[in-house]
Specification:
The complex is a heterodimer of chains A (about 140) and B (about 900). With about 140 residues, chain A is of the alpha/beta class. In chain A, about 50% of the residues lie in helices and about 20% in strands. A five-stranded parallel beta sheet of chain A has the order 2-1-3-4-5, with helices on both faces. The longest helix of chain A has 27 residues. Chain B is built from 24 helices and 30 strands. In chain B, α2 runs antiparallel to α18 and α7 packs antiparallel against α8. Helix content of chain B is about 35%, strand content about 20%. Chain B folds into five domains: about 120 residues; about 170 residues, Dna Ligase, domain 1 (2-Layer Sandwich), CATH 3.30.1490.20; about 130 residues, D-amino Acid Aminotransferase, Chain A, domain 1; about 110 residues, Phosphohistidine domain (Glucose Oxidase, domain 1), CATH 3.50.30; about 210 residues, no CATH class. In chain B, the strands form five sheets. Chain B has a nine-stranded mixed beta sheet with strand order 24-22-23-25-26-27-28-30-29, with helices on both faces. Classes of the chains: A alpha/beta (about 140), B alpha+beta (about 900). Chains A and B meet through α4, β5 and α5 of A and α2, α3, α4 and α7 of B.
Chain lengths: ~140, ~900
């Protein structure tokens, strides 16, 4: 089983740093970005499995970043994070292809469960995409 | 047509021909499988949230507005995810669901957004001269009351200005402060004081670190300068919270912060401090116990000229413990009022008759400290000389003057008031604030008669009854600085001072006893609000009462007894049944839940079972769940024209079985086109197959076919053009889609269609087995009896059964892995055994005989049953 590559995107640097440490301690490969723009640069340069993406960021917001990101890596799984419990934003995010929507501050166990589920989904999709290429 | 032709027709059929391979079929299958799994997960999660909401609707547990918002979002995302999954499964067959979803979503958003007070922006400050009750939304309850006293009742109130709730909103909406505060409070659990303390600290830190927007700063300083002009000098001010709703129906007594003696340059920091006080642990707990949404308590801050008080205190226009007594209570101490209201000193007390203002009783306190203003700003507590500590802080004429002032305040409001007063150095009285007085709940008992003393129980202490009622429990000592988290449920709180801090344990304390404190203090007010009996000012409780000692607190009489005095406890309790029902937050949850929880779509067979009939998220989930199963079966039907990547199973079975692996279901080398049972990794499939290959089935042995049964089948075949051999073939291939924890198997054996869909993992909630059986080729009697038999067998295996015609749908959910596997084993046997059924099930033994035969392992249903070999009993 290969190492899951995670990207954390949030303008709140302390949140990114703390969560990165905790996730790295659980065996994930983790990178952090503090803006949508920075996140896109990372996604353009190397593959990620799962992205935890804050919805409210100054500049390019989470939903814009999500759309751009899925163009760069269609299989990447994006879990949106938000402190604002807005049904509209959540539904819009899922419509744009986010796999899930987590409300901050989320439990680490919750985050881990969502990341696992997202990664499992990506693995299966990759497998079938691989087989498709073989034929 | 002779019998030979018939037999040929029955047992040969057309040979199966491979269809043209479509390379993307397997990819499509995997995607569908993923969508299906996702949908099942979404369904499980949604049902869990619904169960949680239903539990909260019972009203016995606390929850916040945050809870309501987050549950609403959780339900919406789950329901939406299910719709998206169903779209993938069904090639967008049910588009109407999107419309239904949007309308439910809008309805919920409308309820939630109504909780934000429509903010028509007004000025950031108001001079007190402009304030009355009509401005309560802008200046908060406390300031509105004081404005009334000054401007309408024309009673002495120090001059002031108020920083409005619009300023508060401007502060919170700067950056994302408001949202961050909301986010920090998400996990607030009022029962867990450690988490309350942590959340409180984080929120307060966030607020004190946030810059106040420049327009708000400008307005505050301008408000102050105007006040200074009116007074002709730069005053020090006291800054008090004035939250909307405060001092109204629920008191918030003493829960918020007051900062005393603030100079001009300290205004902004003090402003932030008061705002942060909105999120003190006790305020968080109090609001959540009362179900007050945070959005509903915007905070204004009153900046009032500080009265350099010689004495100050609280007065109640009616004795809250004995409203019928016609007595007015005054308490007072030296210096600023902080010491009295916070219960830090034992104040002087006077009982004054309401009708003629006679002093009925005067009781000197022990005012060992005095709070005074520091020259540089802020206040300090200094020791009081022994002589003045026990000397009355008011003269008799002053007591009478004050009593009249209090009655005048009451007259303005027309109901009992609790007045905070100050006496300045020139001997003038001022009203600093006034709030509605909360009276003890009337206990329906013979209050005027003195109840029989609790004979035989030693009286340990006497004190001032501050909140009526009787209760018993073990003693637990707690000081203000101590962590209240350790306080046990049902204990009697014993403390040195009364303090509003103890609101944090009022949900758990049986009663409260303190050394020092007054009926007029904030804590007493809170105790009455929560219905916790309290006896204060006992002087010696902390060293008279030992930890864990069982005592009975009679707060009607102000007595603490040793032991459990059952006769007192059987009296009707004054404590109200605490409930969330009737609170604003409860009402909002109720409205939101109306669009989430009720299930209107119950019968998939009824014409009302369509997307347009969905009224709630629960309906959407029910509909999508049902249709997802339908689509999965449709999918396994479609596999008949697929050869790509399917592998043949080399096992002794009554038909050919092909397997399609969509993820971790098979172990195989790429080169072969066949696998053995040992190559199957998928646990549900392996177990199903074990059932199908159970040696006791003996399907390969020559059977003694009853001729009448055979004719029944053959005749049906000839009569029904549908079975002309082209559409339904005997000996068709069967297919199974497998994954590590999943299998979807379907077969047609003879004319029977049987399908098994199962997910089986260590996660109990996701486990399920669904079985579908449709028979054919037999006369009505046989069909009916067969249906009855299969239904009965499934019922005994704990399945939920639905029958329509000769289609049987059976489902079983949330069983542990072992139980799921045991059922799959039985289903495997059943699928094969049904081959024999039609031939056997003519008129003859009752259905029950067949059921017994099945569970006895007589899968050939032979009348002279051999003793079954190697069969296990089904799981109970």
């Amino acid at each position: 089983m290969r190492i899951v590559r995670l990207l954390l995107v949030d303008d709140e640097t302390r949140f990114v740093e703390t969560l990165s440490k905790r996730l790295a301690a659980r065996g994930f490969y983790v990178e952090g970005a503090y803006s949508g723009q920075q996140a896109l640069e990372l996604v353009a340069s190397r593959p990620f499995d799962v992205v935890l993406l804050d919805v409210r960021m100054p500049g390019m917001d989470g939903l814009e970043t999500l759309q751009a990101m899925r163009k760069l890596q269609p299989l990447v799984k994006v879990i949106l994070l938000s402190g604002a419990a807005s049904i509209n934003a959540a539904v819009e995010g899922m419509r744009l292809g986010a796999v899930d929507y987590l409300l901050k501050p989320a439990d680490l166990d919750d985050i881990l469960a969502k990341v696992d589920a997202a990664f499992e989904k990506k693995r299966l999709e990759e497998e079938q995409a691989g087989e498709k290429r073989e034929t | 047509m002779g019998i030979g032709d018939l037999v040929r027709k029955l047992f040969s059929g057309n040979r199966w021909r491979p269809a043209v391979a479509r390379p993307d079929t397997r990819a499509a299958l995997t995607l569908r499988y993923l969508a299906f799994k996702d949908l099942i997960t979404g369904n499980d999660e949604l049902l869990e949230v619904i169960a949680d909401i239903e539990q909260k609707l019972e009203g016995h547990t606390q929850f916040s507005m945050m809870y309501v918002r987050f549950r609403a979002v959780a339900c919406a995302t789950r329901a939406y995810r299910m719709i998206m999954c169903l779209d993938k499964l069904s090639s967008r067959r049910y588009q109407e669901l999107h419309l239904v979803f949007s309308s439910i979503q809008r309805a919920i958003e409308a309820v939630l957004s109504r909780t934000h007070v429509a903010a028509t922006a007004g000025p950031f400050t108001y001079p007190l001269s402009a304030v009355d009750a009509t401005l309560a939304e802008k200046v908060g309850g406390k300031a509105a009351n004081v404005g009334e006293v000054r401007n309408c009742a024309h009673l002495p109130v120090p001059d002031a200005f108020v920083i409005s709730t619009d300023a508060f909103r401007a502060f919170l909406s700067r950056g994302q402060l408001g949202e961050d505060i909301r986010a920090l409070q998400i996990s607030l659990d009022p029962g867990n004081l450690e988490s309350v303390n942590e959340i409180s600290q984080n929120v307060q830190r966030l607020i004190t670190a946030s810059p106040v927007p420049p327009p708000v700063i400008d307005a505050i300083l301008a408000g102050y300068d105007e006040l200074a002009r009116r007074l002709g000098g730069e005053p020090r001010v006291s800054m008090r919270s004035s939250a909307v709703g405060e001092d109204g129906e629920i008191s918030f007594a003493g829960l918020y912060v007051t900062v005393l003696n603030v100079p001009r340059e300290g205004l902004i920091d003090a402003y932030r401090e008061v705002i942060a006080g909105l999120y003190s642990p006790r305020a968080l707990v109090y609001r959540s116990m009362h179900g007050v949404p945070d959005e509903d308590v915007p905070m204004a801050v009153m900046c009032m000229v500080l009265v350099e008080a010689a004495a100050s205190g609280i007065a109640c226009s009616v004795d809250p413990g004995h409203p019928e007594s016609g007595t007015l209570l005054i308490t007072g101490a030296w210096g600023l009022g902080l010491a009295t209201v916070s219960g830090a000193v034992s104040p002087d007390g006077w009982d004054v008759s309401r009708n003629d203002q006679l002093i009925l009783r005067a009781r000197p306190g022990r005012k060992e400290t005095r709070v005074r203003a520091r020259p540089g700003g802020g206040v300090e507590s200094v020791a009081e000389p022994a002589a003045s500590a026990s000397a009355f802080c008011l003269s008799d004429p002053q007591v009478i003057e004050l009593a009249r002032l209090v009655l005048a305040v009451e007259a303005h409001y027309g109901r009992p008031q609790e007045v905070e007063w100050a006496l300045d150095r020139e001997g003038r009285f001022f009203v600093l604030q006034s709030r509605r007085l909360r009276l003890a709940r009337q206990v329906p008992s013979l209050r005027s008669e003195r109840p029989a003393p609790a004979d035989g129980y030693p009286v340990l202490l006497t004190g001032v009854p501050a909140s009526a009622g009787c209760a018993s429990g073990p003693v637990f000592h707690l000081s203000e600085s101590e962590d209240a988290a350790s306080f046990p449920v049902g204990a009697v709180l014993v403390a040195r001072h009364s303090s509003p801090q103890y609101v944090k344990v009022m949900g758990r304390a049986a009663a409260i006893v303190t050394d020092i404190g007054a009926t007029t203090g904030h804590m007493a007010s809170l105790a009455r609000e929560f219905g916790v009996p309290a006896v204060l000012d006992t002087r010696t409780a902390t060293w008279t009462l030992a930890r864990n000692q069982i005592v009975t607190v009679d707060a009607n009489q102000g007595v603490v007894y040793d032991g459990r005095v059952a006769s007192l406890l059987s009296a009707p309790s004054a404590a109200p049944q605490r409930t969330m029902k009737g609170t604003p937050v409860y009402g909002i949850l109720r409205q939101v839940a109306d669009r989430i929880v009720p299930l209107n779509l119950t019968d998939p067979g009824s014409p009302g079972f369509h997307p347009g009939a969905c009224r709630t998220f629960h309906d959407i989930a029910r509909f999508a769940h049902e249709k997802a199963f339908e689509e999965m079966f449709r999918m396994s039907d479609r596999v008949a024209d697929l050869t790509h990547k399917a592998v043949r199973l080399d096992e002794k079975l009554p038909y050919e079985l092909y397997l399609i692996d969509i993820g971790g279901g098979l172990r195989r080398s790429e080169a072969t086109d066949h696998v053995h049972a040992g190559d199957i990794v998928s646990e549900p499939m392996r177990t199903l197959l074990a059932g199908m290959t159970n040696p006791a089935l003996r399907w390969w042995e020559p059977r003694g076919i009853s001729l009448s049964g055979f004719f029944a089948v053959a005749t049906e075949l000839m009569m029904n053009p549908q079975y002309d051999g082209g559409q339904r073939r005997l000996g068709d291939r069967s297919y199974a889609i497998v994954a590590e924890a999943y299998c979807n198997f379907s077969s047609r054996i003879g004319y029977h269609f049987a399908a098994v869909d199962a997910y089986c993992s260590d996660s109990l909630t996701r486990n399920y087995v669904s079985f579908r059986f449709k028979g054919g080729a037999a006369d009505d009697v046989r069909r009916a009896r067969r249906c009855e038999l299969i239904g009965e067998i499934l019922r005994r295996l704990d399945f939920q059964i639905e029958r329509s015609g000769d289609l049987i749908n059976a489902r079983l959910r949330k069983f542990p892995k072992e139980a799921i596997l045991a059922r799959l084993d039985q289903l495997g046997r059943l699928v094969v055994a049904t081959r024999q059924l039609d031939m056997r099930m003519g008129p003859g033994p009752p259905v029950e005989w067949f059921v017994q035969a099945f569970f006895a392992g007589n899968y050939l249903f032979e009348p002279e049953a051999r003793s079954p070999a190697e069969t296990e009993e089904p799981e109970p």
